[in-house]
Amino acid sequence: MSEPTQRPRKAVIPVAGLGTRFLPATKAVPKELLPVVDRPAIEYIVEEAVRAGLTDVLMVTGRGKGAIEDHFDGHPEIERALEAKGDQARLDRVNATTETEVHFVRQGVPKGLGHAVLCGRSHVGDEPFAVLLGDDMIDARDHLLEEMIQVQAQRGGSVVALMEVPREQVNLYGCAAIDPADEDSDVVRVTGLVEKPPVEDAPSNLAVIGRYVLHPRVFDVLERLEPGRGGEIQLTDALLELAEADGDGAGMTGVVFRGRRYDTGDRLDYLKAVVRLGREHPELGADFSTWLDNFVAGESR
């Protein structure tokens, strides 16, 4: 693997999905704006990027996603109303959404995650960058993205986040094959990737989750990649080619994540995320925890 020319400073966040698993809630509201306690899910993702030093954020949007752009705009009427009431706490939370440099590009036709990443090529340019999927929330206490950026600085190439999943669930994910010499390590050399393999064909139980730090060479691969599974341009296919390639930008490293992750693209996991983060909320957590404990005990009516 070759060394990257600079530290990543840009993040690409694909948000063009239809959110069909949350219909009818997402018929008019983008799934990324569904609240997790009192903040839209997408805010947590942007906050994570900024915390890792990625201060230039590009969102790849699609039809019906204009509300996401509005959310990261200023809102003078709300700001004036909060200022008039002296509600500084809420004003600070509203202003926080406009402090990050957020850009938008449209994915005109939904051709898959690989195509969504490719839509960011002109903005990213010839430098390493991160991709954060909006359905995957990483707890703020777990610094996965920071570790991935550090690993890429040390090893070059590209880096993917991996997570151990029950063997019977590997068909739901992209699945990684790794160098056997790294089996006892949390930083592994990825030798192969398979998108949603049958359980019996899966090379491991290490699933690719929604964090990537990529060498810009991935754009060249995506540009010429033929549609794969589901008739879409699969990011997994491009990463597989890089993992098996030689030369500048080639090679793939995996960071095995053992922290707290919330899949807000799944209805049940979304509810779990609301409960878990609700219990830890600085203002609501204590009262909510008391109520929830009583409810579980059958004492709440």
UniProtKB/TrEMBL annotation:
EC number per UniProt: 2.7.7.9
InterPro entries hit by this protein: GalU_uridylyltTrfase_bac/arc (IPR005771), NTP_transferase_dom (IPR005835), Nucleotide-diphossugar_trans (IPR029044)
Gene Ontology MF terms in the entry: nucleotidyltransferase activity
CDD domains in alphabetical order: UGPase_prokaryotic
Keywords per UniProt: Nucleotidyltransferase, Transferase
Domain Nucleotidyl transferase: 10-274
Entry similarity comment: Belongs to the UDPGP type 2 family.
Name of the featured protein: UTP--glucose-1-phosphate uridylyltransferase
The species this protein was found in: Ornithinimicrobium cryptoxanthini
